[in-house]
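User: Just a sanity check before I run the rest of the batch. Below are the structure tokens for the first item. I only need the designed sequence back.
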């Protein structure tokens, strides 16, 4: 794991030294020693935002600094920080800083600053005991709620509680699942699903089809949300960057049974 942290440090140095050039995301992934899909999935767990948003916020921070410390023209800064026009730069600048670029030199105290990412301490090592399993097509039944990367750790347990209050006879679900509206690398729109193997006697129930696949299966000795979330973060931060498998672009599953949770990640 130290190797991945050292590669991530190299990646952050590279980004910081090339914010005024066009960054190739495939090259960034190679610097981190992983494929792009893995980098885009892992980076927000360290930074709290996506890789693209981190780069954008750092560029706009430096653009604000340059505006108040130099006599560069706005058009020059727009081109320097990768914007195709002054108008698109001004829109992004206003959204981030709250004022137009033309006002920055008059009100420098208003400008926002998004600091360079400092790496946290590595997560304590855990025993990544796993197996590869193959499952055929199967169907699940239940409910989904719209969420995203910023809110899923709150929305998932809250959804359980709301369903428990609304339908007290349903019992504990058999599965949890995240479906990605724009692929698993996107962090903007998820649907978090609470599912049963048999159709619940409740309105609004939907059918979710899980295609046949090979899966990495980790057994988590708990069904508590905090323990599942911790194990999921450990998987993506520790195991995934160095594992020999490629993830499949379909949802991962949480299978609840016998007081444990099987964390199932689809692989190619």
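Assistant: Here's the designed sequence for the first item:
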């Amino acid at each position: 794991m130290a190797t991945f942290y050292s590669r991530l440090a190299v990646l952050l140095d590279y980004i910081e030294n090339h914010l005024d050039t066009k960054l190739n995301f495939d090259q960034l992934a190679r610097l981190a020693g992983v494929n792009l899909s893995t980098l885009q999935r892992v980076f927000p767990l360290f930074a709290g935002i996506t890789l693209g948003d981190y780069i954008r916020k750092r560029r706009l921070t430096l653009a604000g600094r340059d505006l108040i410390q130099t006599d560069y023209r706005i058009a020059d800064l727009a081109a320097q920080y990768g914007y195709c026009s002054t108008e698109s730069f001004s829109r992004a600048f206003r959204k981030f800083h709250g004022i137009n670029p033309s006002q920055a030199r008059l009100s420098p105290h208003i400008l926002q600053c998004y600091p360079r990412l400092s790496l946290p301490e590595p997560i304590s090592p855990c025993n990544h005991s796993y197996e590869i399993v193959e499952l055929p097509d199967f169907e699940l039944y239940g409910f989904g709620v719209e969420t995203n990367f910023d809110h899923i750790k709150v929305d998932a347990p809250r959804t359980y509680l709301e369903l428990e209050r609304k339908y007290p006879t349903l019992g504990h679900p058999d599965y949890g699942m995240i479906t990605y509206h724009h692929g698993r690398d996107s962090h903007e729109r998820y649907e978090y699903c609470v599912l049963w193997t048999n159709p619940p006697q409740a309105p609004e129930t939907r059918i979710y089809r899980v295609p046949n696949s090979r899966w990495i299966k980790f057994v988590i000795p708990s069904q508590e949300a905090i323990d599942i979330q911790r194990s999921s973060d450990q998987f993506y931060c520790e195991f995934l960057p160095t594992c020999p498998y490629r993830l499949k672009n379909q949802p991962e599953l949480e299978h609840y049974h016998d007081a444990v949770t099987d964390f199932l990640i689809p692989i190619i």
